[in-house]
Design brief:
Elements: H1 2-28, H2 34-38, H3 43-65, H4 69-93, H5 101-132
Helix pairs in contact: 1-3, 3-4, 4-5
Transmembrane segments: 40-61, 73-94, 106-124
Keywords: Membrane, Transmembrane, Transmembrane helix
């Protein structure tokens, strides 16, 4: 059962990572006309999402292989997103042009990432600690 849970989490994380990679790369590299559809995007937010998408894909491998570093790299992704969000809030308060939907999207992404960190910690790290003792 636990093996299936790891595969399910890995699949969800990989799907989230691939979607994020596609959307952020499309804005950064102006693919498929998505940049124009995004309106007033904030480039450092897009880059933070792009970097996180790569981390999500690596972490999905970590889930499948039960690697202890999975929670660490997902934690790094969460920190990248939190720092980008703090900078984004400062950007907003300095009258930076942005889309309001970005606020909700970043909160959602941060929460989802933290949930994946918790899954990695409690299903991999804690399990491996018990096996060591």
């Amino acid at each position: 059962m636990k093996k299936k849970l790891h595969y399910l989490i890995a699949f969800l994380l990989a799907a989230f990572g691939l979607l994020t990679l596609f959307l952020s790369a499309s804005v950064i590299f102006d693919l498929f006309g998505i940049r124009a559809k995004e309106g007033n995007y904030v480039l450092f937010i897009v880059w933070a999402n792009f970097i996180s998408s790569i981390i999500y894909l690596v972490a999905s491998y970590g889930f499948v292989k039960n690697k202890n570093w999975t929670s660490t790299i997902l934690g790094i992704s969460a920190l990248i997103l939190i720092n980008a969000f703090i900078c984004f809030i400062i950007y907003i308060y300095t009258d930076g042009v942005h889309e309001t939907k970005t606020i909700g999207a970043m909160i959602f992404r941060i929460v989802v990432t933290i949930i994946f960190v918790a899954f990695a910690y409690f299903t991999i790290n804690k399990k491996n600690q018990i096996n060591i003792n």
